[in-house]
Specification:
By secondary structure, this protein is an alpha/beta fold. It has one domain: Response regulator (Rossmann fold). The chain has five helices and five strands, in the order βαβαβαβαβα. A five-stranded parallel β-sheet has the order 2-1-3-4-5, with helices on both faces. Strand 1, helix 1 and strand 2 form a beta-alpha-beta unit. Helix 2 runs parallel beside helix 3.
């Protein structure tokens, strides 16, 4: 049984709802785990703090990671993921409204698999999320931590 989930790391509740709605429209059956800041994301990913007892067989098929968040920003989360052998191969899509060229460059330097700017238009945003989910969940081959 596939225990892969979508880990959505997003602090904007409106964007969370839009992303979830778009994923459901794509008929994606993976569970969607939502965390609202980078600190919580790291706890979930490394089974620490409030997630110390979570099932370690559950892995993210893809991580949708915002950059601008409270506590720990998305770039720091990405850096920590890539520095740890347990998480270094998880697919990470930076899904952000940042228009800063520095964020784009830094994301790729740190090992992001993709960088997608959130379109302002609702239908464009929904379409972008649907395309992302179809690629990362159905087309992409991912490395299992069990390798």
């Amino acid at each position: 049984m596939d225990k892969s989930v979508i880990l959505l790391v997003e602090d904007n509740p409106d964007d969370v709802q839009l992303i979830i709605r778009s994923l459901k429209r794509s008929k994606i059956s993976n569970e969607i785990i939502v965390v609202s800041d980078g600190e919580e994301a790291l706890e979930w990913l490394f089974c620490e703090g409030r997630y110390a007892d979570r099932d370690t067989d559950v892995e993210p098929a893809v991580i949708l990671l915002d950059i601008r968040m409270p506590k720990v920003d998305g770039l720091e989360v990405l850096e920590r993921l890539r520095a740890d052998a347990r998480t270094q191969y998880y697919p990470v899509v930076m899904l952000t409204s940042s228009r800063e060229e520095e964020d784009l460059l830094r994301s790729y330097e740190l090992g992001a698999n993709s960088y997608v700017r959130k379109p302002v238009d609702f239908s464009e945003f929904s379409k972008a999320v649907q395309q992302l989910s179809l690629f990362w969940l159905l087309v992409n081959e991912r490395v299992s931590k069990r390798v």
